[in-house]
Amino acid sequence: MLSNALFTGAATLIWLVSTTSCASAQAAASGPVNVKIPPAVAAKVGKPAPANATKKKSVGAGATTVNTANSADDDDSFWVEQVDVDGDGTVEDTNVVWDDEDKVLYLYADGDFTCANGKTGSGGLLIALFGEGNTGKKPAGSGWYVVSLDEGECAAKAAGLYGCAFDAKGQATACGIATLDEKHDDLVVVTATN
Q1: Range in 19-23, 134-138, 185-189 the model is least confident about
Q2: Confidence (pLDDT) at 194
């Protein structure tokens, strides 16, 4: 009788651990900033640059800057557009760079954004969207975003870069304290947060 009770207890414990692990694995990643890439923004990936585009080697400002040049003489199409870049319903002046060699669309806007806790933060928001045939072999439409937050802003425990990677459906896959990996056009989540 005792061995059956131990077996049943152990089986229950294994079931509880596995269902808890599955539930937490299925929970969506979330960061301190509420960014939802609008379909109209995602649809810009891979589209030709407008006729008035100029050339640039980087996009962003301060800590949220990415160098898009693959060599000293490489530059990419740059233009400014009125876009609701973060899906909050407000149109912002947005700097757009299409990195034609790496097939990545970058969008940068400086202004207010909505924190996950409902409050408002302010600063630069940099978004990267991977296009078809991108050099990182990422799914087309997936990407990442990053913001530079002050301590306490959007409930950030420390000042620094925070961001999320997201899949082609716009669902966050990893969020937290981040660094930019310019060589691979990617965001590296250093410390995950939820």
Answers
A1: 19-23
A2: 59
d(CA 74, CA 157): 38
Strand partners, 120: 114
151 Cβ contact partners less than 8 Å away, ≥ 6 residues apart: 157, 158, 159
Where does the pLDDT of residue 182 fall: very low under 50, low under 70, confident under 90, or very high at 90 and above? confident
**CA–CA distance, 82 with 91 (Å, rounded to integer):** 6
> What residue ranges do the domains of the chain occupy?
1-28, 31-192
What single string gives the DSSP state of each residue in 52-81? T-EEESEES-GGG-EE--SSTT--EEEEEE
User: How does strand 143-149 pair with strand 120-130?
Assistant: antiparallel
Q: Report how far apart, in Å, the C-alpha atoms of 192 and of each of 66, 127, 163 are.
A: 22, 19, 10
